[in-house]
Design goal:
Distance between the termini: 29 Å
Number of helices: 10
Oligomer: single chain
Radius of gyration: 22 Å
Largest sheet: 16 strands, mixed
Strand content: 25-35%
Structural class: alpha+beta
């Protein structure tokens, strides 16, 4: 999911198509530069395709380890916070090139910018002043001795080109979906277009060695032929993404960890863009073992649509002592597979459907007595902002005077969100008051009728340990101090 947006599911079709065509035109030149070293890839066929998730089953890749195999049962990587998401470092290629990417549990494809000079991000000016983002260099396949293009016979190519029409790039290249499924087409996998909420990336599927770490950086494991997108042009996607969804292209899937799980503890927003503070991302056995202290809610399975999302069921939301129950769509699916709430690190703010969202706003308005900051609402786009008194012009304000908000999920799981996960200061204090806004949003009208009914975003997951136990098909929550979370 695109981290620089507030919702995934609504985008102007005209803008998407027009932008994608521009990106593909730019990507033609980038690809010619990136792969001139490979004589097998001198002929390229470019076209437009829309990527959708599938449930293709792929074999677990063979791996090599620099230590005995028991060290390869897990991986640990540090997570750092930028202004609207969380980044990890990928070690790709031979020798390894370190590329920083967003962690996204709402998508499958892992991709990195390719070409130090040729990578082009359209409409990304807002990110150019962010040192953590601009420090992320592009991957250069020509500088890696183990880099190669993926082939049309690969199941990953089948997954990213999951259509069979005359405009699909594999069809234009001479590989129909039938030949892909039979693994009888050996041409290089054609370039793809992969869409997010308000972003799009264009690139080619590439294979190279991925190096991951165990509990310390001194213990590493090399994953040969890891498949990722080598992207030359994007729209509103300034750096790469590590896809942690349930599809075959995702990083946990390719590493063979989908039968185990992963966990994270997101730093609070006050540490955004601080390169010196991180929290651990655990993947594998360490993520799911010894978690008896946590509350677990079951993962829901959409029978038809979007099977690669992580769904949970929301039963109620409590504001102080006032509880309100949402519509049934937030805890179960309709006959078309729509409904449920997804938990997504790639969506910044929690999104709730109408009329439940408006009901929640009404309850908050009835229990908060501070004056509304209507000018901040108009400027920020958030629906509920207040002027909060603050002593000595402290930006935190009188947080204890704001009501606590609790989410109640299936299986009697209740989590009271830390104060900083709900209302956030929109600027510096002035005259001993600070404007704070509720960082929840409403699902767009189009979103509510198609796909998930709600999204539990990353901002509401701050200072909360979240465990994706894929073995037992459940998700665990526990409030924690993520800045001091043990790395084991």
């Amino acid at each position: 999911m695109s981290l620089c947006i507030t919702t995934r599911f609504h985008m102007s079709l005209f803008l998407l198509v027009a932008t994608t065509l521009i990106i593909f035109d730019k990507f033609v030149h980038a690809t010619q530069i990136l792969y001139t070293h490979d004589h097998h890839h001198s002929s390229l066929v470019l076209a437009l395709t829309y990527s959708t998730s599938t449930t293709t089953t792929i074999p677990t890749p063979k791996t090599t380890s620099k230590r005995p195999l028991n060290y390869a049962d897990h991986m640990t990587e540090p997570l750092k916070e930028v202004r609207d998401g969380y980044i990890i470092s990928l070690n790709l290629g031979t020798p390894p090139q370190i590329i920083q990417v967003y962690l996204d549990t709402g998508s499958d494809l892992t991709w990195v910018p390719c070409g130090n000079l040729s990578f082009d991000c359209i409409d990304c000016n807002d990110y150019k002043n962010n040192k953590l983002l601009t420090a992320s260099i592009s991957f250069s396949p020509s500088h890696s001795s183990s880099s190669l293009r993926d082939s049309c016979s690969s199941p990953f190519c089948t997954d990213i080109h999951s259509s069979d029409n005359s405009f699909d790039t594999c069809t234009i290249a001479g590989c129909s979906l039938t030949t892909l499924l039979r693994s009888t087409c050996y041409r290089p996998c054609p370039p793809f277009a992969y869409t997010y909420g308000e972003g799009v990336v264009a690139g080619t599927l590439t294979r190279d060695t991925l190096r991951v770490h165990a509990t310390t950086n001194s213990i590493s494991r090399d994953i040969p032929r890891f498949c990722f997108g080598c992207v030359g042009s994007t729209y509103r996607e300034p750096i790469g993404i590590a896809g942690f969804g349930k599809g075959p292209l995702s990083l946990p899937s390719q590493l063979g960890f989908l039968h185990k799980g992963f966990s994270h503890c997101f730093l609070p927003f006050k540490y955004a863009n601080n390169p010196n503070i991180s929290s651990p991302l655990f993947v594998g056995d360490l993520a799911i073992s010894s978690k008896e202290y946590m509350q677990f809610t079951p993962m829901l399975k959409s029978p038809i649509m979007y099977p690669n999302y992580y769904y949970i069921g929301l039963e109620a939301v409590t504001v102080g002592n006032v509880s309100t129950a949402p519509q049934v769509t937030l805890r179960e699916f309709d006959s078309f597979g729509n409904g449920g709430m997804i938990i997504d690190s790639g969506t910044t703010y929690t999104h709730l459907p109408e009329p439940f969202y408006s009901q929640l706003l009404s309850i908050l308005e009835s229990v908060i007595n501070y004056p509304r900051a209507t000018e901040v609402e108009e400027r920020s786009g958030f629906d509920l902002c207040y002027r909060i008194p603050c002593k000595s012009n402290n930006i935190l304000g009188d947080e204890d005077e704001l009501p606590l908000i609790s989410f109640h999920f299936l299986n009697n799981v209740s989590i009271t969100l830390p104060q900083g996960n709900c209302f956030y200061a929109m600027g510096a204090p002035s005259n001993y008051s600070v404007a704070k806004c509720l960082l929840f949003q409403s699902m767009d009208d189009d979103d509510e009728s198609d796909g998930p009914a709600g999204v539990f975003g990353s901002f509401q997951q701050q200072n909360v340990e979240v465990v994706y136990d894929l073995d037992k098909e459940r998700i665990g929550f526990q409030v924690a101090d993520c800045a001091n979370f043990p790395a084991l």
